[in-house]
Amino acid sequence: MNEAQAGSTPGPIALVGSGEFLPVMEAADAALLAGRAPRAVFLPTASAPEGPDRVEHWLRLGTEHYDRLGVEPVPLAVLDRRDADDPAKAAAVAGAGLVYLSGGNPGYLADTLRGTAVLSAVLAAWQAGAALAGCSAGACALTAVAGDTRTGATRPGLAVVPDLVVLPHFDRIEEWRPGIVDRSLADLAPGQILVGIDEETVLTSTEGGWRVDGRQKVWVVEADGRRVPHPAGAVLALPAPAQGYNPVAPGK
User: CA-based angle 230:176:216, to the nearest 5?
Assistant: First the structure.
């Protein structure tokens, strides 16, 4: 067991605007795994409502991606709450250097994992030093709000980063959902900050703040609606992840 796994300091959180398992994300994932066990556990949970072909797509893409990085790929097909409470699936998370939640429906992802054995295992791995990443729906689910793309309803996220609300695909999201930025800003709870993450761009927690990496920008949406851009290399003073997160608490 390496130092990162043996310690009690949580690993980094990576919030990704888009591009999971594509060559453009190889450098970001390699950085997350640096100094950690070469074992990547990835969950296609958010894509389950789209059907088995889509799930298989993410499992295949993730396996090929981590094979290219020379890392053990651990595809974990957690598709519903029964899967998420399966002790064998929860046990498969142990020893991960990186746990990755890929895209799809944020609300479905958060509701499927909330209060389950798999989520407890994921959070325990993160608290022991593993990196925890979410792309698109996965990024939303790790924060305060995870909207349900089927119904349009606002659902609570898993709140691993409780004071952020994320809009992924920020450079394109208004094309698909006109007015979503203003609506999300109006719905913020006290103390929450709205952050937009462009496609193929990553916002990663570090000891010194949140670092921007990737092809485009991260945007902080101010209370008056101004969108403040931060390019790759910038470090943002945003609220930290909830290091005291209790992995056995349902957190509804």
Answer: 20
What is the rounded distance in angstroms from the CA atom of residue 115 to the CA atom of residue 237? 30
Kindly state whether residue 246 falls inside one of the protein's structural domains. no
Helix (H) or strand (E) holding 131: strand 131-135
Q: What is the rounded CA–CA span in Å between residue 118 and residue 133?
A: 15
Q: d(Cα 96, Cα 32) in Å, to the nearest integer? A: 12
> What is the number of domains present in the chain?
1
Look-up of token digits 């996965």: 138
Residues 68-126 pLDDT 10s: 999 999 999 999 999 999 999 999 999 999 999 999 999 999 999 999 999 999 999 99
Whether pLDDT at 3 is above 70: no
Question: Smallest Cα–Cα separation from 250: which of 95, 84, 73?
Answer: 84
Structure tokens at 101: 């939640």
- Residue 32 within a domain: yes
Residues 6+ apart with CB under 8 A from 18: 103, 135, 136, 168, 169, 199, 200
pTM comes to 0.92
Supply φ then ψ for residue 149, to 5 degrees: -75, -15
Q: Which domain holds residue 22?
A: 3-236
Q: Is position 245 within any domain?
A: no
CA dist 73 and 61 (Å) reads 10
**Domain CATH number, residue 106:** 3.40.50.880
Classify residue 199: in a domain, yes or no. yes
